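$ ./design --mode recover --in tokens.txt
reading tokens...
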């Protein structure tokens, strides 16, 4: 069992061009308010994520500022938030929260790890 959260990821979920535009706008707005890293905007499911997505990465100490802001500003986007402990299976199953609707992850991606 992990003993330390090193970082958090918030994955913005969308599944069409309108959702992509909303995710891009939210990510740009978040970048102006917080210290975080915006990943690529995928237009297909990647890794365990069942929908198109973009990853926001931020320090553990910024959780209390960023996650409530995302909850209030996410619009219609669903957001999957998880801890970063370097135990991918734990991070994506035990250390998670959802803003909006939840979606089943493809956990088979961790079988090879």
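writing sequence...
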């Amino acid at each position: 069992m992990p003993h330390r959260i090193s970082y958090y990821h918030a994955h913005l979920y969308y599944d069409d061009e309108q959702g992509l535009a909303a995710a891009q706008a939210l990510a740009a707005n978040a970048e102006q308010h917080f210290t975080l890293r915006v990943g690529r905007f995928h237009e297909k499911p990647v890794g365990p994520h069942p929908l198109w997505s973009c990853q926001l990465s931020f320090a553990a100490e910024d959780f209390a500022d960023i996650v409530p802001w995302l909850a209030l500003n996410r619009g219609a986007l669903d957001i999957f938030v998880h801890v970063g402990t370097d135990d991918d299976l734990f991070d994506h199953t035990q250390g998670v929260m959802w803003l909006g609707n939840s979606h089943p992850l493809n956990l088979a991606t961790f079988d090879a790890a």
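exit 0
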